[in-house]
Design goal:
Number of domains: 1
Order of helices and strands: HEHHHHE
Distance between the termini: 29 Å
Structural class: mainly alpha
Number of strands: 2
Helix content: 40-55%
Shape: globular
Length: 112
């Protein structure tokens, strides 16, 4: 996902509002990966520079029409692939998690 706190808030809200089973998931945040990369290289990023389109542009990825769930998911997946390629052949999932990943768990709603 791109900007995990926002996306995770939507998921948490759904689990609070609906009767859904417990779940846990690991995630990678392309925005967090990009921030970590910028901090490590001491590369200043201007306001708005961590938006999905701006991140994609730094990797030479094509522009896209945003704010459609399917298109945004595809654009984020392409960005993640570009970020992996940037890390090099020895890039492992653990490396990506350290750059910008996490795990979330949700319990069943009360009364279930």
């Amino acid at each position: 996902m791109h900007h995990a706190p926002l996306e995770l808030s939507f998921l948490k809200q759904a689990w609070q509002n609906e009767t859904l089973p417990a779940f846990s998931a690991s995630w990678l945040d392309t925005l967090a990966i990009e921030r970590t990369k910028a901090n490590r290289s001491q590369q200043p990023i201007q306001d708005g520079g961590f938006r999905l389109g701006a991140c994609r542009e730094r990797y030479g990825l094509p522009e896209y029409q945003g704010h459609d769930a399917l298109t945004d998911a595809l654009a984020t997946a392409e960005l993640l692939l570009a970020q992996i390629a940037y890390q090099g052949r020895d890039c492992r999932l653990q490396d990506l998690k350290q750059l910008g990943g996490g795990r979330v768990s949700s319990r069943r709603a009360k009364g279930n």
